[in-house]
Design brief:
single chain; globular; Rossmann fold; 28% helix; 24% strand; 5 helices; alpha/beta; six-stranded parallel beta sheet
C-alpha cells in the first residue's frame, strides 16, 4: 500500500513484529530502509537487518523518502512521516488502531503526497507473502510467553520491550 518500488527509499515507523519482517522484504528488493523507533534495542535490530539509518520520528533522515509505512499506533507520527516524504511519495498507516492525528500544515501533504490506511490482509495477500518469504527467506525474531503470562507480554509490548514479535504459547 506504500507503493514502494525496488531500489527506493522506505521509512518504517515503529519497529515491532510487522516492521522487522517488512525490512527483510524491502532489503530483498534492494531498498534503502530508514527506521524510526524510540528504543535503542529496536534500532540495533533494525541495523542488524540492514537499515541504512535509524533514529526517532522527530529526526530528519539524510534523504527524502519515496514511501513510508507507519506501524506505531501514534497519530502524532503521521505529519512527521509525511514531512519526510519526497513530493509524490506515499505513506501507508498499518496500525489497527491509532491515537488522533493532530492538525497539520497543508505543506506537509502539498506536492501530491498520499496518505492511506491499510484495512485488511486478504487470503491472496497471505499466499503471495508466504511464497516471497520462503524465497527471501524471512527470519522472525520471536519472544514466547506461556498463556498465563499474557498480561506481562502485553505490558512489555506496550513499553517497547519486545524484540520482534510476542507469541503466546497455548497448552505448553
Amino acid at each position: 500500500m506504500s507503493e514502494i518500488q525496488p531500489g527506493a527509499r522506505l521509512g518504517l515507523y515503529g519497529f515491532g513484529a510487522s516492521a522487522h519482517i517488512a525490512i527483510q522484504v524491502a532489503r530483498h528488493w534492494d531498498c534503502s530502509v530508514y527506521v524510526f523507533t524510540r528504543g535503542e534495542a529496536h534500532r540495533r535490530l533494525a541495523r542488524e537487518l540492514g537499515a541504512c539509518w535509524t533514529g526517532s520520528a522527530e529526526e530528519q533522515p539524510d534523504q527524502q523518502l519515496d514511501a513510508a509505512a507507519i506501524f506505531a499506533p501514534a497519530g502524532w507520527i503521521v505529519p512527521l512521516a509525511l514531512g519526510h516524504l519526497r513530493p509524490g511519495g506515499t505513506c501507508a498507516i498499518n496500525a489497527i488502531h491509532m491515537s488522533p492525528i493532530p492538525k497539520m500544515a497543508y505543506g506537509v501533504i502539498y506536492g501530491e503526497r498520499t496518505l492511506r490506511s491499510v484495512t485488511n490482509f486478504t487470503r491472496r495477500d497471505a499466499g503471495e507473502f508466504l511464497a516471497l518469504a520462503a524465497q527471501i527467506p524471512v527470519r522472525t525474531t520471536v519472544e514466547t510467553f506461556p498463556l498465563p503470562e499474557a498480561n506481562e507480554a502485553l505490558a512489555r509490548l506496550a513499553a517497547g520491550k519486545i524484540q520482534g514479535a510476542a507469541v503466546l504459547e497455548v497448552g505448553a
